[in-house]
Amino acid sequence: MSGALAGDPALDDFLDRAGRLLSREPPGAGDPTSNPRGDHDLDPDPPSSVPPRPHRAAAVLVPVVARPDGLAVVLTQRAAHLRDHSGQVALPGGKIDPADAGPVDAALREAEEEIGLERAAVRVLGYLDPYLSATGFLVVPVIGLVDSDAALAPNPAEVAAIFEVPLPFLMDGSRYALNALVWQGRRRHYYALSFAGRTIWGVTAGILNNLRERLSG
Fold first, then answer.
1. How many helices (H) and strands (E) does the chain have?
2. Rounded to 5 degrees, what angle do the CA atoms 55, 56, 60 make?
3. Rounded CA separation 179/202 (Å)
4. Which residue of 31, 80, 114, 174 is most buried, as measured by CB atoms within 10 A?
5. Is the pTM of this model over 0.70?
6. pLDDT range class, residue 51, cuts 50, 70, 90
7. 123: nearest Cα among 139, 144, 109
8. How many angstroms separate the CA atoms of 130 and 37, rounded?
9. Using CA of residue 164, residue 17, residue 22, residue 107, what is the dihedral sign?
C-alpha cells in the first residue's frame, strides 16, 4: 500500500494494538444465541429495550488514515434529503446484501459507493464487536487502514460531507457524554461527542467508543 508513513511511531503503535486487540473474525455475527452490544446496554432495564429478532445484517467501515499530523478516522455527514438518519454523522456502510461475501465485502462496497474509496486502498485489520441498533440492524464494524493517497469524494445522493476526526480525540473517554431522549415512547440512552461543530452520536458514537475500549486493551 502506497502512501504509508514509514517509521511513524503512532502508526506502528496503532497497528500493533490492532493486531493484538481486534477480532480476526466478526464475533457473534449470525449467531442466534449471541447478545450483541448496543445502546440498549446503557438503559437501566436493558432486556426490555433490546430490538427483537430477527436482526438485519449490516456492516460499516471504520477507516483509519495516517496523516503527517497523526492518525484520523474518516466520517461522513449524511445528506439532508435522505429518509432515514438525514444529516447525521455516520461511518460508511449499510445492509449486507445477498451478493456480498460477508461484512468486509459489504463495508468496502458501501465505502466505495458513498465516498469513492477504492477497495484496493484499504487494508483490513480486524473487527470490533457487532453493534445492535435500536432499529434492529446488527452492524459489524470493520477496521481498515486507508492509503493516505486515496482520493475521496462524497456521493451527493447519500453523503453531504466527508471529514476526519483525530484518533487521539476519539481515544479520550472524557469526550463521550451519556445522553438520553424519548423515542417510541421510552427513554433511551446513547453516547455523544462533539467535534468541529458536529455531533457524533448513537450507533456511530457507540462503535467509536468500542474502538476506544478495544485499542485501550
1. 4, 12
2. 120
3. 9
4. 114
5. yes
6. confident
7. 144
8. 7
9. positive
What Å distances lie between residue 165 and 52, 64, 86, 197, CA to CA?
Answer: 33, 10, 20, 12
Confidence at 13, pLDDT banded by 50, 70, 90: very high
Q: What is the pLDDT of residues 104-148, one digit of tens each?
A: 999 999 999 999 999 999 999 999 999 998 888 999 999 999 999
Which three cell numbers, joined as nine digits, stand for 168? 487521539
Residue 32: CB atoms within 10 A of its CB come to 8
Nine-digit cell string for 120: 484496493
Grid coordinates representing 112? 466505495
Instruction: Let me know how long the chain is.
Output: 217
Nearest CA to 91 out of 73, 117, 65, 113 is that of 73
Residue 89's Cβ-count burial label (10 Å; 0-12, 13-18, 19+) is buried
Q: What is the mean pLDDT of residues 178-198?
A: 88
CA dist., res. 92 & res. 114, Å (int): 7
